[in-house]
Write a structure and sequence with these properties.
The chain is of the alpha/beta class. The chain has 13 helices and twelve strands. The protein has two domains: about 130 residues, Aspartate Aminotransferase, domain 1; about 240 residues, Type I PLP-dependent aspartate aminotransferase-like (Major domain) (Aspartate Aminotransferase, domain 2), CATH 3.40.640.10.
């Protein structure tokens, strides 16, 4: 197969070979069930504890604040639904904003069906909320606010520490979906979040594993039922190889984060500058500079975005029109329409996302291939 360039890293990432190496023994040799009493089980249980410590340390928390899940979607649902159902006696107003991942928005809609008072805040052209409007929306019955750390489509960054201050001043809890932010932004307990969701496959770990941080003392109830795994909060036999991989990916990603972030941001800026200089009329969706380091979302006027993706794929470059989780959804991106784009404009937008493995020559190759592909995809 001809060399393919993967530039869709906000959808998923390559598993680091070092991570694979650490996972393999737990697939072929040390494959015990972590709940078993024999040596195989003890080895698996210790491996989970080791990974839990790595994730906790990265966030400045404790092991008992980390609960492993099957991914970001489950972590979001457990945080939002599990917290709200366990604490409904404290209030029933819950607040989020329009560009959240569908895992958050749909969890809020489920709670709306159960009688919760749901408030969804608008965002500005760059995807930011107005914190003053958030504060105006909160009242004595506000139970939970959920604001993502970094947007998966347009790279908008939210000031979680500042938002947490406002939320806590009203006696509410703050959940943040940090799936795109982990190993790309410095996040820790000092940011004062109460619940935080993450997924390993976004930072060069395996798919099918994630985690939820729950601040000590918070009450969260399970949303599915079975055995007593994860201290009774998340039943199901633990995915030991996946959890080991998540811990390894976290350790590696945190250790190289500063250099990786600087390099990805520099490559991203070089790419966006070259594209906007080469192709007339291209606009940047979301913030121009202060955004997620590996993300670019570009509007190509009067262009069929899906055709452009397919033509670039044929040319050897994998990019996307938006969230991979919404690929089968018919209609414009809810994120792009939330920032004011028309469905036609949203349909002509392209998301390009880099990783720490992306090279300058790969980015330059995309820039060279784009003009012809865009020309062939005009409406």
């Amino acid at each position: 197969m001809a060399h393919k360039v993967y530039l869709d890293n906000n959808a998923t990432t390559k598993v680091d070979e070092k991570v694979v190496h650490e996972m393999l023994p737990f697939l072929t040799e040390r494959y015990g069930n972590a709940s078993s009493m024999h040596e195989f089980g003890k080895e698996a249980d210790q491996a989970i504890d080791d990974a839990r410590e790595i994730v906790a340390h990265a966030l400045g928390g404790s092991q008992r604040e980390i609960f492993f899940t099957s991914g970001g979607t489950e972590a979001d649902n457990l945080a939002i639904i599990g917290y709200c159902l366990a604490n409904r006696d404290k209030g029933d107003q819950i607040i989020t904003q329009r560009t959240e991942h569908s895992a958050v928005l749909n969890a809020f809609e489920h709670l709306r069906s159960l009688g919760f008072d749901v408030v969804v805040l608008d965002v500005d052209r760059e995807g930011h909320i107005d914190q003053g409007r958030l504060e105006d929306a909160m009242n004595d019955g506000t139970l939970l606010v959920s604001i993502m750390a970094a947007n998966n489509e347009i790279g908008t960054l939210h000031d979680i520490r500042s938002i947490a201050g406002a939320v806590h001043a009203h006696g509410a809890a703050l959940h943040t979906d940090a799936v795109q932010a982990i190993t790309k932004l410095p996040l820790g307990r000092s940011d004062d979040f109460d619940l935080l969701s993450m997924a390993a496959h976004k930072f060069h770990g395996p798919k099918g594993v994630g985690a939820l941080f729950i601040r000590k003392g918070l009450k969260v109830q399970p949303i599915m039922f079975g055995g007593g795994h994860e201290r009774g909060l998340r039943p199901s036999t633990e995915n030991v190889p996946g959890i080991v991989g998540m811990g390894a990916a976290m350790r590696i990603g945190i250790s190289t984060m500063d250099a990786d972030v600087e390099r990805m941001a520099r490559l991203r800026e070089r790419m966006v500058y070259a594209i906007t200089e080469t192709i007339p009329g291209v606009e940047v969706n979301g913030p121009r500079h202060h955004r997620l380091c590996n993300n670019a979302n570009l509007l190509f006027p009067e262009t069929d975005g899906q055709q452009l993706v397919l033509r670039l794929d044929k040319a050897g470059f994998a990019v996307s029109t938006g969230s991979a989780c919404s690929t089968h959804h018919v209609g414009a991106s809810h994120v792009l329409t939330a920032i004011g784009l028309t469905p036609r404009q949203a349909g002509g937008s392209l998301r390009i996302s880099l990783s720490r493995f992306t090279t300058a020559s790969e980015v330059d190759g995309l820039v060279a291939a784009l003009p012809e592909c865009v020309k062939a995809s005009r409406l």
